[in-house]
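Progress against Task 2.4 (sequence-to-structure conversion) is shown through the following example record, which the project officer requested during the mid-term review.
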Amino acid sequence: MRATPSHLLLCLCLLLGFVLARPACADVAVAAKQFDLPGLHLQDVNARLADDPAGGVHLQLQAARVDVAAMGWRRVGLRLDGQLQRDAQQRWVFDGRVQLRGAPGGALSDGELTWVVNPGSDTMQIELRQDKAQANAWLPLDQLSHAKISLRQLPAGWLQGLLGTVWSGRLTGGRLDADLALDTGGAGAQSSGQFTLDGVGFDSPGGRLAGQRVDGKGRFDFAHDPDGARIGLQGTLDGGELLLGPLYAKLPAHPVQLDLGANVRRGAIELDRLRVSDADALQLEGALAFDAKGDLQKLRLDRFRASFPAAYQRYGQAWLATLGLRDVRAAGHLSGNLDLRNDGLHAFAFDTEGLQLADGSGRFAVSDLRGAVDWSAQGDRPATTLGWSNLQFYRIANGATQSRWQSRDGTLALLQPIVVPVFKGQLRLASLDWRPAAAKGQRLATSLAVTGVDMASFSHALGWPSFPGTLGGAIPSLRLVGDRLELEGGLSVNVFDGFVDVTHLSVQQPFGDAPVLAGNISLKQLDLGALTSVFNFGSITGRLDGSVDNLRLVNWNPVAFDASLIADGGGRISQRAVNNLTTVGGGGLAGGLQGAMLKLFKTFGYKRIGLNCKLRGAICEMGGLGNEDGGYTIVEGSGLPHLEVIGHQTKVDWPTLVRRLREAVNGHAPVVR
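Structure tokens generated for the chain above:
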């Protein structure tokens, strides 16, 4: 845009010179292999001037190639065809058609051109029209480097070449109106004015910067030199969608105030001044920078205030999704600042009063969050207080508490232990050190203890059958290394008059889409009578020991473990429990015991019960007390009638085994006849 009017005018002035100097009543043909002006190159130029029967001169001009560096035009074909004459005011007027071939965005592929030179007022005017688009330029004859330009309904794609001189992105649609002043000189240009956008879209090669159906209006200033461009903009946006790296905005229908200053250098974009005001959702001041590939280099928010739920719905949804938080429910206000660079976090702070926040998948929720946190990667920050009325992790509700924090040399530390109520018991957090800037090293270290947690409440929250007993234990060290939580020590559950101990526990990507949990579980002297009554499996008395080693869950679904369960102290087993164990092992009854005889007894004595399962992927390798012909022993009987249950399937599809267990618990297992 910036050089085209003056260059076109220079060409037309030269043609006018031919008209004035040509012999009367004679055609004039002009040809040039090459024609150059500053910033303009024409190749294979042919022009023809002839008397027009209707008066004036008929002008035809063709150029096989036109290059306009300032517009980003390369190898554009040009054709002019029209009438040049003097009107009653002694002005030179050209009316005709202009056709460009290969111009970015299909600009002026078949347009109309009116050019007026008024020697009396020492001015020149150009008007271009195509379909709904119209462009007008006014220039003084003694200073063709200055122009006043008006654009109406101009397709945004027509400016693709100009955009390409400073950025690798592309315009994808929409139209614009603008009134501006343009000054060109040497290798640079300056422009300022006002604009209106209607459904404008843009995209970047990596897809990290994009926009669609953006409406808006305001004022701008633009300066361009060989090193890049400087852009300033003040105005409003009235709808559409924007993607700026990790930030996605779904703009509301009402005006959003925008004030920015940007530098563009070799494809990189730096917004060193950014102010946004969306009255009922978000206000911020800061800076933003992207490299030539569209990767985020800097996000600095010197001040922000977010009002929920509108701020989440319009601006926070995509960003929080990258952190593993989707379908968030939020209410309240959050204020603070943020300094995020390409090498990670450098500082953040926030304060709130009564914020409500919940992850849609149920992994995290907080109610009545109030207080502040202030962290910096360097130096010390003032101590802050943060409290809540309820904090929930994976359906485990933690009661009200208040905590004190301070940042020192990059570590945000808990200043004093806190006690949190959990299911009639307590979680005591003795210490917690968090290093947000630690990219791959140890990010978090803490020690905690759990006492007196009611297992019935705990199991109900997780959707399990109601277990009696209490949960307790100490974790002297819990560390977040990279994206992996590692626990030293263990948890012990006093349940069914025995103990379940969990050790070597770790969780990778705890808030990701597919968290991975690993650990070992030990079962000690569980009361089988109480256990089987809870699961409705059928009655078994005695004590159960066992282990689940090398346990691995992906998105809380088992993919690997080595499980061994044994009851070797003897006891009684009901007919229903016999049927269910037989079904689980895919086996049958040994020793010639007939179904009719089995029905005569409600319970049977046993000496030992054992069942093993080694899960790898979707296959469980089954085993028991010992190998038999074609199977393994699950129940070794004692006394009369003597009972033995043999499992015959050594490899069972895991979904099939889960279905069998579920049917057994729900009372749908087949009855042995």
